[in-house]
Amino acid sequence: MQPLERYASIVDEFDAFRAACDRPLPSVVRVNTLKASIARARAALDAYNVEYEATDWHPGILRLEERGPGTSWPYFHGWLHGQEEVSVLPALALDPQPGDVVWDACAAPGSKTTQLADLMDDRGVLLGNDNNLGRLSALRHNAERLGITNLVVTNQDARNFSFKPFGDRTDDENRIEAVDRALVDAPCSCEGTIRKNPDALDQWSMDHVESVVGIQKGILRRAVQATRAGGTVVYSTCTFAPEENEAVLDHALETEDCELREWEPPAGFETDPGITEWDGDEYDPSVELAHRVYPHRNDTGGFFCAKLEVTG
Amino acid sequence: MTDPNTDGVDGDSPPENDGHRFDRLPATAAEREVPGRPTRAEVVQWWEQRYGIPPATWEEHTFWEKGNGKLWAFAADVVSPIPVESLGLRILRTRQEHWKPSTDAVQRFGRAATENVVRLDRTEAERFARGEDQELPRWDGDWGYVIAAHEIADGVEPIGVGLYLHGELRSTVPKGRQEDLS
Question: Molecular function (GO) terms listed (chain B) (predicted)?
Answer without folding.
Answer: methyltransferase activity
